[in-house]
Amino acid sequence: MPAHDSRLWTIDTPNTSYVVAVDDHDRLRGLHWGPRLSPEQALALLDLPESPFRPVVGREPRFDLGAASAFQYGHNGLQVRFSDGTRDLELVFAEAIEEDGDLTLVFADRHYPLEVRTRYRSHPGSDVIERTLALRNTGTEAIDVVRADSATWVVPGLDTPRLSQLHGEWGAETQLTRTTIPYGETVIGSRRGITSHQANPWVAIDDGAATETSGPVWSTALAWSGTWRITVEKGPTGSVVVSAGFGHDPIAIRLSGGETLETPIAAGLHTAGGFASAASAWHDYALAHVLPHPDEVRPILYNSWEATEFDFTAEDQMRLADRAAAMGCELFVMDDGWFGARVSDRAGLGDWTPNPDRFPDGLGPLIKHVHSRGMRFGIWVEPEMVNPDSDLYRAHPDWVYHQPHRRRSEVRQQLVLNLARPDVAEHLHARLDELLSQNEIDFVKWDMNRPFTEAGWPDGEDPDRLWFDHTRNLYAILDRLRADHPNLRIESCSSGGGRVDFGILRRTDQVWTSDNTDALDRIAIQDGFAQVYPARVMGAWVTDSPNPLTRREVPLDFRFHAAMAGVLAVGGDLRVWSDADQARGAELVADYKRIRHAVQLGRRHPLQAGAVTGVQYDRGDQTVVLAWRRARSFAYPDPLLKLHGLDPDARYRDERTGRVHHGAILAAHGLELGLDPADYASAMIELTRLP
């Protein structure tokens, strides 16, 4: 709702309003982010008293467009350096443009040739607001962009603001923590060239009292798969602003004359119903406005890596495919080791042609065999990497990131290709397009197993651009491959969950959550993941016991039930599974096929009662409960598990037992799970709402 005479605008969603206004000094102020306001109520915000302006000593107003300028001693979301060394900005409001539901506010520097556009977009049916920033150099001399955050969100004043974030490392991704926000600036991010295992570009703010089911929550997620940073700044009176953008210090990008730099999307969300409500809103947004094929349920895949690693033949893969098909798997994925001289991790990366010893007749016979078993065929690639022992590296040693007079540090005997170079990007697209055109490949697992080091581009005109253009070119390759091969489906992997964000999810169908497949660890990893990303994209494998990483021994049912909370897959060595485990696995796969529409496309509710944790998924008349308990103490019986979101006046039939439950009783008292008294007990329960 524009009010041009007051220079105030609201961005409305079904339940919220985000209100901004340009003040008398042409500064863009964030006035409200919360429950939806009427036009009259939004205008009344201008009558509220302002915090006093105390130059040098300090100032309280928080700006929606935080440009570096006089008296701005806190975090600045927009910083540049002009050719004469000037760093401060003096922005003047130019115009507001409203079209197709978007609001764009245009500013220009008072003296220098820089135009700044901040854009807001909302979608029908969603409370998520998308924001980007665009900088255009309207002159001829280059401008260095030191920082260009996509959005700065002004959070209402809170007494004890709390920060939720996802931290971790390899094998322990998306660990959820909630901490009181300290005064000053809190910065999280990645300098690794990828989203990273250590942090994920999402944060949430609440008043310190929100629960899963109650309380206001403000959150933001950055749709970017390269380096990034989110700054949370708490002022002396408790005010909070959150600024999110690509890049990292001290990198700057040169903006040439006539060039425009558009930042990635930073999406923001306010909800009033607690953390579970916020998570569900993010899931709905991903399904409606991010994923390329949101209505598809993902097939149950089998991946060969943990069974064979590098030691296999085409016949070995066929035997695995036979056993996977017998279990009910629908997609067979051959992992690393099929190409070039790739008999270990020391050679072959970059040479994307079938190993002639393992596949003398190419991939065709294996693909035909897999398809004959009623499964789709998938393959593993790691296009952004190269082994020094490869034909590609011997031909183009300058194609990797490197710096003069510095070593080229290897991880897993591999280096990172300079995908920012147009010739490298074109080569990678051509090789992958050739692979897909010559073979009936249905699915690609796109891996990226190491961060950047010695990230230099000695002959590049603007070497720092690599941190931006690598990701942009990655996106462009994925977009081209999807356009040319519309039936192709893609999984994003980066040593597990090292590249999970809404940027990569706009171009892929699922992500590999973690290389840690231990079922108990996965419950915690998946809980953090689900704060923002839906089960529809969360790859979850059932592997062998003891687990290859943790050596923990866990029953087969527990492993399956943990993986059923996402996109179920099997990754164990089926050649050594007993007949009993094969048969039970087939039963559990069939169970998942009955519930996966609810899991992948339904509404998620986290559950907990004592030592029992679980998740509930609702879709239509179907409710699915997955519950786990590691151990119980003193032989105490398991408590009933209270369910959420059910119609209290409806009745629900337990498909295991035929027992009929009242919705009001399930909510107030709970559901009896019937867990085995032994350690690592679990259950999958289907409830059907009766007419």
Structure description:
It comes from Glycomyces algeriensis. Keywords: Glycosidase, Hydrolase. Its EC number is 3.2.1.22. Pfam families: Glyco_hydro_36C (PF16874), Glyco_hydro_36N (PF16875), Melibiase (PF02065). InterPro entries: Aldolase_TIM, Alpga-gal_N_sf, Alpha-glycosidase_related, GH, Glyco_hydro_36, Glyco_hydro_36_C, Glyco_hydro_36_N, Glyco_hydro_b. The chain is α+β, with helices and mostly antiparallel strands. The chain folds into three domains: 288 residues, alpha-galactosidase from lactobacil brevis (Beta-galactosidase, Chain A, domain 5), CATH 2.70.98.60; 226 residues, TIM Barrel (Alpha-Beta Barrel); 84 residues, Golgi alpha-mannosidase II (Immunoglobulin-like, Sandwich), CATH 2.60.40. It is 20% helix and 31% strand. The protein is built from 13 helices and 39 strands. Strands 8, 9, 10, 11, 14, 15, 17, 18, 22 and 23 form a ten-stranded antiparallel beta sheet that branches. Strand 37 and strand 38 form a beta hairpin. Helix 10 runs parallel beside helix 11. The radius of gyration is 26 Å and the shape is globular. The mean pLDDT is 95.
What is the structure about, briefly put?
20% of the residues lie in helices and 31% in strands. It is α+β, with helices and mostly antiparallel strands. It has three domains: 2-289, alpha-galactosidase from lactobacil brevis (Beta-galactosidase, Chain A, domain 5), CATH 2.70.98; 301-381 and 429-450 and 476-598, Alpha-Beta Barrel (TIM Barrel), CATH 3.20.20; 606-689, Golgi alpha-mannosidase II (Immunoglobulin-like).
